[in-house]
Amino acid sequence: MEQIEERRPRQGLTHKVTAALRQQIEGGALKPGDKLPTEQALIKAFGVSRTVIREAIAGLRADGLVEPRQGVGVFVLEPPAANRELPLLTLPTRKISDIIESLELRTAVEVEAAGLAAVRCSPAQEAEIHSRLKDFEARVKAGESTEAEDFAFHVAVAEAANNQQFKEFLAFLGRRTIPRSQLRRAVGDSLGAPASDAELYQEHCAIFEAILARDPEAARDAMRRHLSGSMERYRALMRPAVTS
Fold this sequence. Notes:
The protein has eleven helices and two strands. It is mainly α and 244 residues long. It has two domains: 11-76, Arc Repressor Mutant, subunit A, CATH 1.10.10; 87-243, Four Helix Bundle (Hemerythrin (Met), subunit A) (Up-down Bundle), CATH 1.20.120. A two-stranded antiparallel sheet has the order 1-2. The longest helix has 28 residues, at 216-243. It starts with 10 loop residues before the first helix and ends with a helix.
């Protein structure tokens, strides 16, 4: 797979708009059933482009906080209730160690899912993984947020394992399991993402190529390297605070 040049000119603005709107929703300023201001009003209020506003709305929609209605507008939904039986998986991320623990859990599940996908995936599922990879590539080239595409790629791999439990596990965790989403919830925008989108894209390519080659051990190794690498990058963010 070709190397992609990293260009992310809008992501910081998108994250800020998303965070501001999420705060209004979670803080009660925007209540379930309320209609968000129009796209033009949001552009004027935040001083950003239409693309930034649309990316922010897409992120809120992926998190289950808003729902676009064709020809009517975007409406606030009831925030998803925390599952009291699984609080560690559903409560908001508050520190970087939470992200590392989430990645450890994902590794235990997704490494085997990748191995099974290499053995069991159908041609249609193989095409779906490739499609999600191309979506990720397009976002990187456009300098746009890749969080939704990142999550969609992992879901496609889990689905290709042809064991519904793997897909349902990721669906339960939702897009919040993507470390960059968790990092913003924990510390805001004070720390940048520890890995570039181009780097993550190359790691996804290695997973896809192993599945394409029908090599289960290579697929497990590629997924393990991807998630273990993420853990190491987030551990590195903690070290200055420990040693200072």
